[in-house]
């Protein structure tokens, strides 16, 4: 995909206990973490995938991420070292269609267990997102759909706790099959993680069911699944380039919508410029705040892991939408 975004993986952390599902984060791709260890070696494409692998794998898994902090994932080039890492891995966990270089590298390597998160839930075409290229290819079958169809689908499934839980269940089953000696722990870890995600879903449902408005403005259309899950409407300022400035006509349109729908806030992301959001907010006399697409944990993140940042997102939405 030709989407200029930044997906940032977390820095390396020590291995967690088999059942410890607390504030774990994705490992880096440092050489110290690379592969063929005496553990279940998993290579993940970027933070949301690495987080799942860490949570489910616990102390049995050695997880590394192909996307280093600060890397632009869509333009990621897989190094010779990383290809060797994939070859030596016991499993590769990725989201097909998000990072073309990763897709190609995984397809060309002999890693036995290839887990494509896109096949573990249903990807949707959110129309106005930057990922919608239109056309009938969006109706392709869930398995084996064309490259064009994959690119037309919105990949931000991890921002919907329900879909993320579906992916987690699929990853857990794949781990059980690939490493049967520790299947019981993987099953238990998956169950705990899914329970936490179900709890997060309940928090969002209860926190957003009674609000003054259902419309929110974002710098970039990353929250289609979240909006659909909780009966909200996402209105994105930018198209393909989240750092582009909106046209004068688009600003006028959003100003009118803000008045009509009681919009108070323009959200921007921590990993891209806030110039666009602040331009619109100034012109429309709106506030600005952060809504994190959670493509990585950095020192700017409002939390240390997926759950903490999602709870921060919920609070930001409650404030902006006027939750009662």
Give the structure's gist in a few sentences.
39% of the residues lie in helices and 10% in strands. The chain is α/β, with parallel strands linked by helices. Strands 2-1-3-4 form a four-stranded parallel β-sheet, sandwiched between helices.
Top keywords for this entry?
324 residues, alpha/beta, 4-stranded parallel beta sheet, 10 helices, 8 strands, globular
Structural features, described:
The protein has about 325 residues and is α/β, with parallel strands linked by helices. About 40% of the residues lie in helices and about 10% in strands. It is built from ten helices and eight strands. The chain has helices at about 45-55, 80-90, 100-110, 145-150, 160-180, 185-210, 225-230, 250-260, 275-285, 305-320, and strands at about 40-45, 60-65, 90-95, 115, 215-220, 235, 265-270, 285-290. The strands form two sheets. It has a four-stranded parallel sheet with strand order 2-1-3-4, with helices on both faces. It has a four-stranded parallel sheet with strand order 6-5-7-8, sandwiched between helices. Residues about 1-35 and about 130-150 have low confidence and may be disordered.
Q: How are the strands ordered across the major sheet?
A: 2-1-3-4
User: DSSP helix count?
Assistant: 10
Question: What amount of the residues lies in strands?
Answer: 5-15%
Helix content: 25-40%
The topology string of helices and strands comes to: EHEHEHEHHHEHEHEHEH
Overall strand count: 8
Query: In this structure, how is the largest beta sheet organized?
Result: 4 strands, parallel
Q: Span from first to last CA?
A: 40 Å
So what's the overall shape?
globular
Secondary structure class reads alpha/beta
State mean pLDDT (0 to 100 scale).
81
């Amino acid at each position: 995909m030709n989407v200029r975004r930044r997906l940032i993986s977390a820095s390396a952390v020590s291995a967690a206990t088999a059942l410890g599902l607390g504030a774990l984060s994705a490992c880096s791709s440092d050489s110290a973490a690379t592969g063929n260890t005496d553990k279940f070696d998993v290579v993940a494409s970027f933070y949301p995938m690495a987080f799942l692998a860490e949570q489910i794998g616990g102390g049995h898994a050695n997880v590394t991420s192909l996307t280093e902090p600060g890397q632009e994932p869509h333009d990621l080039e897989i190094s010779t070292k990383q290809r060797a890492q994939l070859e030596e891995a016991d499993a590769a966990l990725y989201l097909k269609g998000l990072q073309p270089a990763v897709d190609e590298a995984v397809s060309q390597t002999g890693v036995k267990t290839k887990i494509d998160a896109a096949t573990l839930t249903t990807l949707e075409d959110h129309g106005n997102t930057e990922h919608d290229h239109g056309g009938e290819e969006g109706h392709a079958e869930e398995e084996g759909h064309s490259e064009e169809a994959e690119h037309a689908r919105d990949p931000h499934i991890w921002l919907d706790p329900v879909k993320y839980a579906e992916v987690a269940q699929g990853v857990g089953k794949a781990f059980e099959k690939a490493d049967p000696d520790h299947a019981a722990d993987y099953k238990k870890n998956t169950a705990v993680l899914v329970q936490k995600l179900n709890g997060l879903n309940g928090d969002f449902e209860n926190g957003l069911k009674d609000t003054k408005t259902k419309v929110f403005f974002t710098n970039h259309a990353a929250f289609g699944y979240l909006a659909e899950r909780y009966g909200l409407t996402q209105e994105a300022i930018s198209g393909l380039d989240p750092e582009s400035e909106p046209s004068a006509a688009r600003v006028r349109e959003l100003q009118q919508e803000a008045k009509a729908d009681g919009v108070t806030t323009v959200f921007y992301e921590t990993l891209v410029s806030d110039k666009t959001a602040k331009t619109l907010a100034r012109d429309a006399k709106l506030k600005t705040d952060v809504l994190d697409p959670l493509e990585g944990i950095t020192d700017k993140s409002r939390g240390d892991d997926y759950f903490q940042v999602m709870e921060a997102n919920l609070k930001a939405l409650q404030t902006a939408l006027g939750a009662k």
